[in-house]
Amino acid sequence: MKKLDYERPIINKVNAGMPDKFGMSTRVPVISHIEGVAITDIMKQFGSPIYVISEPCIRETFQQAQKAFLSRYPRVQFAWSYKTNYLNAVCKIFHSEGAWAEVVSGFEYTKAIENGIPGNQIIFNGPDKSREDLERAIKDGAMIHLDSLDEFYYLGELAHKLDKKANVGLRINLDAGIYPKWDRFGFNLENGEAWNVLNRVMLHEYMVLLGLHTHMGTYITSVNAYAVATRKMADLTNRLFRKYKYELKYLDLGGGFASKNTLKGAYLPGSDTCPSFDDYAEAITSVLLDSELPPERLPLLILESGRALVDDSGFMLGSVLANKRLADGRRATVIDIGVNMLFTSFWYDHEVLPTQLKSEQTENTTIYGPLCMNIDVIREAVQFPLLQRGDAVVIPRIGAYNMTQWMQFIKLRPPVLLIDTDKQIHLIRKKETNEQFNAMENVPEHLKG
Ligand SMILES: *Cc1c(COP(=O)(O)O)cnc(C)c1O
Fold first, then answer.
1. Is pLDDT of 25 > 80?
2. pTM of the model
3. What would the 3-class secondary structure string for the chain be?
4. Domains in the chain: ranges and CATH
């Protein structure tokens, strides 16, 4: 006969279902299925831990965002931020919905080309573009967003040598009233640098200025910041027209929309407090429509939203390894998902949920990962159900940045599954193998044997 699970006796006021002092529900939600597929079935087949991505969720979210903007402004183009999640299957979903590619390295650029995106639909951002990267981008006609004066001069030289004009955009940083103010990327607006470099680009024999770009930060919850930034970009566009009678092709407002995750230390959950796509779209497009830009000169509005488009589609499945008592008597639950697989647990209070509820009983618990490191904490303190070794846990909203910032540390990276719109499961990234890691290493002769 199976030994019954033991839990130490505790006395608790029965408060199941009652709101807490913030008015939030105290009942632990359960996620048993993803897009209609039972999590227990997935884990039986593919093991633990494992990433799961929902294709229907990506498509719905993208279409919502697109609709929010297109219903307010005639010319909108999204460019998928590769670094947010560059699994090819994920990129292909965004591209099939019409998104261009936004890349920040030669590695990502190659991926975009291999995913079938033509150069003139690739936006090339970032401070590190090598000679080969820039030459390829010039030849492909990609939108090269200048980050520094050094890059401006270097690009000019290369374009001259190739005798081909480079398509250029200018990354601009500006004060939109938010903190922290990112001023390390691109050229500052308020101190006149952006205008100065714009003039240099305009007069350059081997550059064609196509657009202006700003990416102010990430997880920006102030829609007003977007209104301020858009106004400043629109003014700059008009100033260019006044001086050169030159019409910019596009304004690129970058990414930065918040996802529904809850930042550490936040008072209320992100799902209740973060602006919607409609809120952001209203702020940005109102400014453009109300600006001095005449209808025939309205630029294409480009958006490089990353986390807000993909976070909700990602789930991490794992299992409980052990329960223990810390020295002060607090409950600790160790799961097989560590911060190496869940980089965003440094910023977010991720929800960790059971796949089934055995009782309504919960206890204040610290949730640790499996790494032999003190920093491996998934949740510092959370009212958590009394799960046992082997029970499954689900961490929703992990689609952004985790499958790119993951670290190979003491364990191989887990596989990634995609559930498509017909509930079919596809393995879109295999579990890594020891052979792959050893293949990249070399032991010198004298250490062999
Ligand atoms: C990372 C990045 C994005 C995406 O940012 P999110 O905050 O995830 O929307 C867009 N543009 C640039 C230049 C980036 O570096």
1. no
2. 0.95
3. CCCCCCCCCCCCCCCCCCECCCCCECCCCCCCEECCEEHHHHHHHHCCCEEEEEHHHHHHHHHHHHHHHHCCCCCEEEEEEHHHCCCHHHHHHHHHCCCEEEECCHHHHHHHHHCCCCHHHEEECCCCCCHHHHHHHHHHCCEEEECCHHHHHHHHHHHHHHCCCEEEEEEEECCCCCCCCCCCCCEECCCCHHHHHHHHHHHCCCEEEEEEECCCCCCECCHHHHHHHHHHHHHHHHHHHHHHCCCCCEEECCCCECCCCCECCCCCCHHHHCCCHHHHHHHHHHHHHHCCCCHHHCCEEEECCCHHHHHHHEEEEEEEEEEEECCCCCEEEEECCCCCCCHHHHCECCCCEECCCCCCCEEEEEEECCCCCCCCEEEEEEEEECCCCCCEEEEECCCCCHHHHCCCCCCCCCCEEEECCCCCEEEEECCCCHHHHHHCCCCCHHHCC
4. 33-53+312-430 (2.40.37.10), 55-311 (3.20.20.10)
